[in-house]
C-alpha cells in the first residue's frame, strides 16, 4: 500500500510535463467511507505544518489588519470605530497618490533593469566556461544577504561626499550627483541598489529555464537553417516564457512592496521623493500614530497588487508558452 | 504507515508544545519563587554615555530594596517611541519607562500611565523635593502620571583653541546672531575641512530661533500658524544661510550618524548648537572648549527639554514601580550621580545639591551658562498631530537649505500643511 501511494503523490522530477500528469490524482480507493475519511485525515495531518503558520502568521494578521483599518488607533489608546473613514480620508490625500506614484516609478526603473541584467547573466553563465559555478554562486550572494547590509553598503558607495562612486566619477573630471541626498537622484539610487541585489535571483530562475530547453529543439532549428538570433528569438524566448512569467510576477509583487532599502537608504526622503507605499504605511503607524489609516492603505495596496496579478495571469495566455 | 503517521503526529505535538511553552515564558509576572520582583525600566537617555551612571543608581536602589531587581533596557531616541508604542500595544510594556514632555500628554491621556498619586499613598513621599514647576509639568487632569527625572538646555559650544588660533575673542553671553555670523565666516576653512558653525536645520531649532527673532509659531488661540511672518523669514534665513557657507551641506553630511558630534570632537568645528547632554561625551576632547548661552536676535531664547519617569498602567508591581521612579528622580544618590557625571540636571528643589553642578571641575568651565539659559526659555508648540507638524516643518526647511525653494516659499508651504493639520 505504501508503495502505491508514494507513486501517486511523487512529483514529476522535471516538473515539465506536469499538465499532462494527473497532479490532482485521487486515491484509487473507492472502498468504504471510513477509509476515505482516514485518507483525508492523513492529508490534513501533512498539510498542518504549513497550514498552522499560514493561519497564525498570515490569515489571522490579515483579518486583524482589516479590522484595524475600520478604526482610529494610535497603538496606545483603545481603538475607535470609524467605519470606512480611513479609506475615504486616504483617497482624498495627495500623499497617498504620491506614494503610489513613487512606487510605480520604482517598478518602472527596477523591473527592466533587473530583468535585463539577470537575463544577460543567465545567458553568459549558461555557456560552458571555467569558473562558471563559482560565478553563479557569487552573483547569487547578494540575494541571500540581509537588505539592511546591502542598503548600508550602497549608501556608502553612493555617498555624495565620500563615496567610491563619486570618487570614480571625479577621476574623469566630472562632478557626481547628490545620489540619495538629491530628490531627483534618490529613486535612481534605490533602483540601482535593488536591481543589483535581485540580479542573482532572476539569473537563477532564468538559468534553470534555459537549461530545461531540450537541445534537440535547437538542433532541429539549426537543421532548418535558423542560427544565432533567429534561434534565440523563435526557440529560446518562447520556451523560456514560463520562467519569464514567474520572474515578472514575483518581481512586480516585490516592487509594489519595496520597503527595506528605502527605509534604510532614505527613510522616504529627501523632500518625500522616495516615499513609497509601504514606507508611507510605516510612517502612518509608527511616526504619526495612525495605525487604522496604515491598515487601510495596506488593503488598498493589496487590492492593487491583486488586480495587477490577475491581469498578468489573464494576459499570460497570449504570450506564455508551456510547450 | 500507521507508525509513521503516529510518529509524525507526536513530533508535531512536541514542536507545538515547545512553541507554546516558549510563548508563555514571556508572560512571566516577574516574581521569582523567593519573592524577588523583577522590575523593567526602559530609557533613551542613558545610552551610550551614562549607562554606568544609571548602574550606580540601580545598585544603590537594589541595596535599599533587596527584594527588587531592576532590569534596564535602552534604545536610541530615534527608535525609542516606536518600541514603546509597540510594546504597549502588544501588552508587553515595561513596568517603568522614560517619557519626554512632548510625548507625556499623549500617553497620559491614552490611559497608558499609572496614577503615581495612588501608588504613593501611605508613603513618606514629600512633593517638595521636586522643583514645583517640573512636578506640575507632569500632571494630567490633576493626577501625577510621571515624576520629573531630568532637564537639559541647548547652549552654544565653542572650540576655544580654534578661536585663539584665529586671534578671535571667544563668544560671550552678549553675543547676537551678527557676531556669531561674523566669527563663523572667519573660522570656516573648507580646505582644511574646518567649519565655523553647526546648527541643525529642523523644527526644534526653528521654533527657538523664531522666538529669538521675536516671532510666534502659533497664534495665541493655537488654531493657526503664525510663523509665516517677517520674523519667521528672518529665523529661517538665519538657519538656512549657514548651510554651504559656514556649515556643511546635506550632501556633504551624507546622512552620517552623529556627524556634528564627531566634527566637533575632532576639532574641526568652531561653534556648535547642541544640548548639555553632550558634556560627558566631550569631556576628553583634545582641545579647549567651553559653552555660552546661545546668541539671540531681538531677544534671548533657549530650548529646554524635560524628561520624566512613568509607570505602565498595566504593571503588576505598582508599589515597586513607584519606589523605583521615586528613587531614580529624587534620591540623593540619583541627584549627585547626575551632577557628578554632568548627566543633564536633576529637577530637584535642593539648591545646595544643585550648586554642586557649578563646582564640578570637569569641562565646561562656564557651567553657569546652563543656569543662565533657563532665564529665558522657548517651549516647543505642542499639537495633537505633533510628529506630522515637526516633519513638515523640517522638510520645508531642508528644501530651502538645499536651494529647492526660496525661504519664503518654504514657509508658505509649511504654513499651509501645518494649518491643515490644525484644522
With helices defined by DSSP (H or I, 4 residues minimum), what is the helix count of chain B? 19
How much helix, percentage-wise, in residues of chain A?
Answer: 55-70%
Query: Which band does the percent of strand residues of chain B land in?
Result: 5-15%
Distance between the termini of chain B: 70 Å
| Parts with pLDDT < 50 across at least 5 consecutive residues of chain B | 11-27
Rg calculated over all Cα atoms of chain A: 25 Å
Number of domains of chain B: 2
Order of secondary-structure elements of chain B: HEHEHEHHHEEEHHEHHHHEHEEHHHHEHH
Given as residue ranges, the uncertain stretches of chain A (5+ residues, pLDDT < 50) are 1-23
Looking at how many chains there are and whether they match, the oligomeric state comes to heterodimer
Q: For the record, what is the CATH homologous superfamily label of the largest domain in chain A?
A: MetI-like
Keywords (chain B): Signal
Protein name (chain B): Sugar ABC transporter substrate-binding protein
Signal peptide (chain B): 1-21
InterPro entries (chain B): Bact_solute-bd_prot1, SBP
Would you kindly provide a written description of the structure presented here, covering whatever features stand out?
- Chain A has 323 residues and is an all-alpha fold.
- Chain A has two domains: 2-68, no CATH class; 86-319, MetI-like (MetI-like fold).
- Chain A contains 13 helices and two strands, in the order H-H-E-E-H-H-H-H-H-H-H-H-H-H-H.
- A two-stranded antiparallel ribbon of chain A has the order 1-2.
- The longest helix of chain A is centred in the N-terminal third of the chain and has 36 residues, at 33-68.
- Mean pLDDT of chain A is 87; it is low at 1-23.
- Chain B is of the alpha/beta class and 423 residues long.
- Chain B folds into two domains: 33-150 and 306-359, D-Maltodextrin-Binding Protein, domain 2, CATH 3.40.190.10; 153-304 and 372-422, D-Maltodextrin-Binding Protein, domain 2 (3-Layer(aba) Sandwich).
- Helix content of chain B is 46%, strand content 15%.
- Chain B has 19 helices and eleven strands.
- Chain B has helices spanning 2-25, 51-64, 77-89, 101-109, 116-120, 132-137, 160-165, 177-187, 203-212, 230-240, 250-253, 259-265, 279-282, 318-330, 332-341, 351-359, 368-373, 386-401, 407-422; strands at residues 37-43, 68-74, 96-100, 139-140, 143-144, 147-159, 195-198, 269-275, 289-292, 302-311, 377-378.
- In chain B, strands 1, 2, 3, 6, 7, 8, 9, 10 and 11 form a nine-stranded mixed sheet that branches. A two-stranded antiparallel sheet of chain B has the order 4-5.
- In chain B, helix 9 (203-212) crosses helix 10 (230-240), helix 15 packs parallel to helix 16 and helix 18 (386-401) runs antiparallel to helix 19.
- Chain B starts with a helix and ends with a helix.
- Residues 11-27 of chain B have low confidence and may be disordered.
- Chain B: This is Sugar ABC transporter substrate-binding protein.
- Chain B: InterPro entries: Bact_solute-bd_prot1, SBP.
Amino acid at each position: 500500500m505504501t508503495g502505491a501511494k508514494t507513486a501517486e503523490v511523487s512529483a514529476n522530477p522535471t516538473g515539465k510535463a506536469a499538465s499532462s500528469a494527473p497532479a490532482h490524482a485521487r486515491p484509487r480507493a473507492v472502498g468504504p467511507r471510513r477509509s476515505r475519511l482516514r485518507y483525508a485525515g492523513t492529508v490534513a495531518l501533512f498539510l498542518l505544518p504549513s497550514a498552522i503558520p499560514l493561519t497564525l502568521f498570515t490569515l489571522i494578521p490579515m483579518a486583524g489588519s482589516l479590522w484595524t483599518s475600520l478604526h482610529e488607533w494610535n497603538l496606545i489608546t483603545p481603538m475607535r470605530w470609524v467605519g470606512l473613514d480611513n479609506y475615504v480620508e486616504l483617497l482624498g490625500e495627495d500623499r497617498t497618490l504620491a506614494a503610489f506614484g513613487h512606487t510605480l516609478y520604482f517598478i518602472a526603473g527596477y523591473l527592466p533593469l533587473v530583468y535585463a541584467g539577470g537575463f544577460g547573466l543567465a545567458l553568459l553563465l549558461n555557456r560552458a566556461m571555467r569558473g562558471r559555478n563559482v560565478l553563479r554562486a557569487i552573483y547569487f550572494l547578494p540575494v541571500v544577504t540581509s537588505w539592511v547590509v546591502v542598503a548600508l553598503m550602497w549608501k556608502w558607495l553612493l555617498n555624495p561626499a565620500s563615496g567610491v562612486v563619486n570618487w570614480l566619477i571625479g577621476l574623469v573630471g566630472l562632478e557626481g550627483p547628490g545620489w540619495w541626498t538629491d530628490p531627483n537622484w534618490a529613486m535612481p539610487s534605490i533602483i540601482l541598489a535593488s536591481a543589483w541585489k535581485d540580479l542573482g535571483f532572476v539569473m537563477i530562475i532564468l538559468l534553470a529555464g534555459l537549461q530545461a530547453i531540450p537541445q534537440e529543439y535547437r538542433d532541429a532549428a539549426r537543421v532548418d537553417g535558423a542560427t544565432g538570433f533567429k534561434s534565440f528569438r523563435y526557440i529560446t524566448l518562447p520556451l523560456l516564457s514560463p520562467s519569464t512569467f514567474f520572474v515578472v510576477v514575483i518581481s512586480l509583487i516585490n516592487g509594489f512592496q519595496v520597503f527595506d532599502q528605502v527605509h534604510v537608504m532614505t527613510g522616504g526622503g529627501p523632500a518625500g521623493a522616495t516615499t513609497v507605499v509601504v514606507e508611507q504605511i510605516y510612517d502612518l503607524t509608527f511616526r504619526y500614530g495612525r495605525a487604522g489609516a496604515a491598515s487601510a492603505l495596506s488593503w488598498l495596496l493589496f487590492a492593487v497588487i491583486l488586480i495587477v496579478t490577475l491581469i498578468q495571469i489573464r494576459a499570460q495566455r497570449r504570450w506564455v508558452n508551456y510547450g | 504507515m500507521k507508525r509513521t503517521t503516529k510518529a509524525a503526529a507526536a513530533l508535531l505535538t512536541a514542536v507545538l508544545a515547545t512553541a507554546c511553552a516558549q510563548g508563555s515564558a514571556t508572560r512571566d509576572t516577574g516574581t521569582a519563587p523567593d519573592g524577588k520582583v523583577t522590575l523593567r525600566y526602559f530609557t533613551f537617555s542613558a545610552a551610550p554615555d551614562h549607562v554606568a551612571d544609571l548602574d550606580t543608581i540601580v545598585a544603590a536602589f537594589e541595596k535599599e530594596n533587596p527584594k527588587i531587581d531592576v532590569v534596564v533596557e535602552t534604545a536610541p531616541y530615534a527608535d525609542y517611541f516606536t518600541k514603546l508604542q509597540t510594546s504597549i500595544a502588544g501588552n508587553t510594556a515595561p513596568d517603568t519607562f522614560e517619557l519626554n514632555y512632548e510625548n507625556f500628554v499623549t500617553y497620559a491621556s491614552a490611559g497608558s500611565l499609572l496614577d503615581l498619586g495612588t501608588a504613593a499613598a501611605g508613603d513618606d513621599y514629600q512633593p517638595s523635593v521636586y522643583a514645583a514647576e517640573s512636578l506640575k509639568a507632569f500632571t494630567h487632569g490633576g493626577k501625577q502620571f510621571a515624576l520629573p527625572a531630568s532637564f537639559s538646555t541647548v547652549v552654544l559650544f565653542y572650540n576655544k583653541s580654534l578661536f585663539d588660533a584665529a586671534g578671535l575673542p571667544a563668544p560671550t553671553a552678549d553675543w547676537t546672531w551678527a557676531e556669531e555670523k561674523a566669527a563663523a565666516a572667519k573660522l570656516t576653512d573648507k580646505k582644511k575641512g574646518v567649519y565655523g558653525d553647526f546648527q541643525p536645520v529642523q523644527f526644534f531649532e526653528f521654533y527657538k530661533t523664531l522666538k529669538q527673532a521675536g516671532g510666534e509659531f502659533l497664534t495665541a488661540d493655537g488654531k493657526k500658524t503664525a510663523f509665516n511672518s517677517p520674523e519667521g523669514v528672518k529665523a529661517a534665513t538665519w538657519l538656512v544661510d549657514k548651510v554651504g557657507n559656514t556649515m556643511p551641506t546635506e550632501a556633504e553630511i551624507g546622512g552620517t550618524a552623529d556627524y556634528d558630534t564627531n566634527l566637533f570632537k575632532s576639532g574641526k568645528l568652531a561653534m556648535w548648537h547642541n544640548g548639555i547632554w553632550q558634556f560627558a561625551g566631550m569631556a576628553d576632547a583634545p582641545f579647549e572648549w567651553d559653552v555660552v548661552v546661545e546668541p539671540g536676535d531681538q531677544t534671548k531664547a533657549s530650548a529646554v527639554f524635560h524628561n520624566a519617569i512613568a509607570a505602565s498602567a498595566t504593571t503588576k508591581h505598582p508599589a515597586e514601580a513607584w519606589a523605583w521612579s521615586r528613587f531614580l528622580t529624587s534620591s540623593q544618590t540619583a541627584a549627585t550621580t547626575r551632577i557628578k557625571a554632568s548627566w543633564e540636571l536633576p529637577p530637584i528643589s535642593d539648591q545646595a545639591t544643585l550648586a554642586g553642578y557649578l563646582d564640578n571641575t570637569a569641562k565646561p568651565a562656564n557651567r553657569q551658562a546652563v543656569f543662565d539659559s533657563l532665564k529665558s526659555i522657548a517651549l516647543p508648540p505642542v499639537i495633537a498631530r505633533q510628529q506630522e507638524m515637526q516633519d513638515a516643518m523640517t522638510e520645508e526647511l531642508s528644501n530651502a537649505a538645499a536651494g529647492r525653494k526660496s525661504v519664503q516659499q518654504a514657509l508658505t508651504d509649511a504654513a499651509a500643511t501645518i494649518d491643515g493639520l490644525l484644522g
